[in-house]
Design a protein that fits this description.
The chain is an alpha/beta fold. A hairpin with a 5-residue loop joins strand 1 (2-6) and strand 2. The strands form 3 sheets. Strands 3, 4, 5, 6, 7 and 14 form a 6-stranded antiparallel β-sheet that branches. A 6-stranded parallel β-sheet has the order 10-9-8-11-12-13, sandwiched between helices. It contains 11 helices and 14 strands. The chain has helices at 38-45, 91-94, 135-138, 141-153, 169-180, 193-202, 237-245, 267-272, 285-297, 302-305, 316-324, and strands spanning 2-6, 12-16, 26-35, 58-66, 78-81, 118-122, 126-128, 161-165, 185-189, 206-208, 227-232, 247-255, 276-279, 333-334. It binds zinc ion (ZN) (2 copies). One zinc ion (ZN) binds next to helix 2.
Length: 338
């Protein structure tokens, strides 16, 4: 089969590799679409990855082969790959957070990725794509589950005012998930023009630039129109600090963008206003089911979220370069069989 393989020095090359052998408890998926994630860019365009790596963890496809001891799946079934169930016995699993399982290898770590014709995975990581959701749209399940978990962590309900800093794919999906949760006031802070325009199309009610977010001088002082909940999807320390400083009393800040530089939070502000600062990492199987339901509901502006042009395997390198250069605002999908 063909795969887009990272060869070091910001280079991705299409190579012939062996189709994985299907073992007991495993399923082989013919990849339909696979999104390019920010973490793929870190791995391959910032050279965090090991040469020989095949990226891609936001994929949908069709089952072509089912291993021994697999129940409930047959060739022709439409599916997305997602989180495993966890060990079921550690403290995190028992508390309903298998994404924090002590033995958890994340989907990003689970074998070669889906920038390839086929993807092998454990059957317990397979989720059925609902009727009425095409496989192209279904490739949004993974990043949508990330956004959905953040929205859930914030306790978002109708009537709240929300701030989202950073309008990359996760930020945009957070806006969409907030709107789907009934939150009608969503302000987005984003410097880049293409992303600002897209955020507005997705449902942001106000777009601001990072420099417009004023900083109150004293820790008990609130900004003029504070937010009930805020989400940092940029990974930038200044954005995280601004998001915290714009919270109302008893507000919640959810951090989902990672970065190498650390924010400086004013502990007095957190104490005096009883603010909650939390993080989200990946998602649980339940978040995946919710994301698939949300896609099936047809209420998300999926057409606007996805870049109109799919990318073949030999276009992965160029697409990644364009993403790094900020030329593409929406989610870019790789279609290995195109
Ligand atoms: Zn991702
Ligand atoms: Zn566990």
């Amino acid at each position: 089969m063909r795969a887009a393989v990272y060869r070091g020095a910001r280079t991705v090359v299409v190579e012939e590799v062996a189709v994985p052998e299907v073992g007991p408890g495993e399923v082989l998926l013919e990849v339909s679409h696979c999104g390019i994630c920010g973490s793929d860019l870190h791995l391959m365009m910032e050279d965090w990855g090991r040469p020989g790596t095949i990226g891609g963890h936001e994929y949908s496809g069709v089952v072509v082969e089912v291993g021994a001891d697999v129940d409930g799946w047959a060739p022709g079934d439409r599916a997305v790959g997602g989180p495993g169930p966890g060990c079921g016995t550690c403290r995190a699993c028992r508390a309903g957070s298998p994404n924090l399982c002590a033995t958890h290898p994340g989907p990003i770590m689970a074998g070669p990725g889906a920038f390839a014709s086929y993807k092998l995975l454990a059957a317990d990581r397979l989720f059925r794509v609902p009727d009425g959701v095409d496989l192209r749209t279904a490739a949004l399940t993974e990043p949508l589950a990330v956004a959905w978990r953040g929205v859930r962590k914030a306790g978002a309900v109708a009537g709240m005012r929300a701030l989202v800093t950073g309008a990359g794919p996760i930020g945009l999906l957070t806006v969409a998930a907030l709107r789907a949760s009934g939150v009608t006031e969503v302000t987005v802070s984003e410097p880049e023009e293409g992303r600002r325009t897209l955020a507005q199309r997705i449902g942001a009610t106000e777009i601001v630039s990072p420099e417009d977010l004023e900083m109150p001088a004293m820790p008990m002082e609130l900004v003029e129109s504070p937010f009930d909940i805020a989400f940092d999807c940029s990974g930038r320390p200044d954005a995280m600090e601004a998001a915290l400083n714009h919270l109302d009393r008893a507000g919640t800040l959810v951090l989902s963008g990672t970065g190498m530089r650390r924010p400086r939070f004013d502990a007095n502000r957190i104490i005096l206003n009883e603010l909650v600062v939390t993080g989200t990492v990946e998602y649980t199987p339940g978040d995946y089911e919710s994301a698939l339901e949300l896609l099936a509901s047809g209420t998300l502006p999926t057409g606007a979220l996805i870049e109109p042009e799919d990318v073949p395997l030999d276009g992965v390198q160029r697409a990644m370069e364009r993403l790094v250069a900020g030329e593409l605002a929406g989610k870019v999908l790789v279609a290995p069989h195109a």
